Amino acid sequence: MPKYLCLQRRVPGTKPIATRPSPAEMQAMYEKFNEWRERFRAQLVDLGGRLGDGRVELHSAAADGPFVEVKELVGGYMVISASNLDEALDIARECPGLVSPGSGVEVIEIRTPG
Amino acid sequence: MNRSLDHSFFRHEYGRLVAVLTRRVGVRHLQAVEDAAQAALLIAVEGWPRDGLPDNPSAWLFRVANNRLLSELQRSRRHGELERHGCDALGDSSSPATVHLRGDVRDAVLRMLFVCCTDELPIESQLVFALKVVCGFGVREIAERLFMTEGSVYKRLGRAQERLRTTALELDGLTTQQLASRLPAVQAVSYLLFTEGYLSSHGETPIRQELCDESKRIVTMLAHHPISATPDTFALLALMHLHSGRVNARRSATGGLVLLEEQDRSRWNTAEIALGLSWLACSARGETFSRYHAEAGIAAEHCLAPSFGQTRWDRIVELYGLLEAMAPSVLHTLNRAVALAEHLGPAEGLAVLEGMDVPPWLERSYFWHAVCAHLRGRCGQTEVAIQHTRAALAGAPSKSIADALERRLAPWLEQAS
To answer: Any chain A CB within 8 A of the CB of B5?
Structure first.
């Protein structure tokens, strides 16, 4: 089954809303995330994680340049398997907290030789 | 492998983290403590579904929150913000974050409650603060539960925080005497929390249930701790269980209100009533007879009566009399009148009503009119009873209350139409 890279992206021009969910809300988030993970257990290849600091290595000496923006816009990644792009999008869309105001997910097929 | 968590785990854990960490670093750092507890829970939300629950989730959260808090305090100390407090602020920050004992945690949570329950604060502020810091409710959740705006919740929280900052009282700084003198305030807040859940005529059942559960949790902690295990605490806990044991029968399948005489007593929760009775037995020692004893006694009489008709109304009349003497309130007098009408007849009940100095707010309330309609009607004063019936129905705050009144006042309602 093909694999897909999911990138959590911040919608350009929006600031992440600094929310302070209450403990009860956090527990609800935790439970929803657990349900989602159980439901798609077989298809979640790598739950990935949040992206921290990084650096870009280029052929030329430019260390940051145009990549700054991209780095700031991608919040996290994960890898899932699905029979096609639509199914992959469905799984990603249902992941709690991934698609919300100001944030979305980009799903890209990973092509491996063979 | 996926052990599940109790449905209020995060909320209660928040209260435990705040109490234990506040004890470590001091009440003046409450804001930083709350931030650290919040951050630790958020990290758990992301990490636990991925990695599975840690062996000891509470210890895990404590370690994470403790580390966050200490690095935050060190950071602000570097910024000189702690200068005026001196460098003791970090307390035993160099000692490892040991896994605390259950008893210590409960002790810290209770002390937190004693710190915020002071006569210097209006009881509404104490309640809001306890709901946030001890029960772990968010501002919006508190507003929903107490039928207040979020703005007034913030205002009350602010007042409580300000007060705590200026008094600079530490969790371990309360003397045994101070703890004892604050116990009535702690009991009053717990009682208020219970009545908000149990008596409120609006709001959804699960939300109300949650407030009752929280109040019982707190008073159970009080009943098991040497500083607060007193006969009146036991009576308070008995009262809560005895009321809760009957709560199921108060609602019909369609959500309507069921009057006491109509209740199916087989739907009462006998296990909870038994628990209430055993706490009531514990409360019967020493010299104290508090208002909680009187109220628990009344609730127990209702629970023990095989039927409405076989209720020992004489005992209930007597207990309401004691309650009135200890906590004067026209509502207690009104209840005594109703019980007396069942015991000796409507004329005796009516005599109590007529002897009352009725404040305007009571005279406008639907329950005053309902009691008047019932007693005057039974005394043959049909015309007046009809007027009171109309007034009671017009003032009923909800459909379910209006329906119950219609059944109760049916004889006069028929004549009114």
So the answer is: yes
